[in-house]
Amino acid sequence: QVQLVESGGGLVQAGGSLRLSCAASGRTFSSYRMGWFRQAPGKEREFVGTINWSGGSTYYADSVKGRFTISRDNAKNTVYLQMNSLKPEDTAVYYCAGDLRGAVGSWSANYWGQGTQVTVSS
Prior knowledge:
Order of helices and strands: EEEEEEEEEEE
Structural class: mainly beta
Strand content: over 45%
Oligomer: single chain
């Protein structure tokens, strides 16, 4: 069993930056593909990006590519989401996800965090 706890959300002006963290419990964290999803009010949860177990491979949604960066520190059981050049449309609850399965367009996860709110003002 893995528990995920996100932190780092908040209010930021458009063009600003935030870094989200996701701390994981459990000894198997380093073997999991991890990811980030987000859900805006009135919308379905959407994929943001993912990172493989070693951190050597990442993949992002087109909407955040070039602005967001996912990284991980397996020694600290933590995955990060660095968000730059934030836009009002990035406003959402951001969820950390663990043990991602599937492929582009059809990701699923066995573990989810509780979410952290990110609000970008114009």
